Amino acid sequence: MSAVTKARSDLGVKTRKLGPNHPDTIEARRTFRAEQTAAYIEKVLAEAPPLNDEQRARLAELFRPTNADTRSGVA
């Protein structure tokens, strides 16, 4: 069973048993979305040509926590 399928199943079970706004359901939804995102990124990277160091650094920067001011270039 893939991680996405397992996360989707866990989300469905928790939604039915606990309701959509329960903290465990919210965490399951967050996990499901993270697994979906990871699967998509893996697929895109597998199909793309190899990245150079600058491209890898730029993409990695997207995953670092920032606030709105630093994203817009204002420090």
TrEMBL record:
Annotated protein name in UniProt: Tetratricopeptide repeat protein
Organism: Mycobacterium parascrofulaceum ATCC BAA-614
Chain spans, region Disordered: 1-24
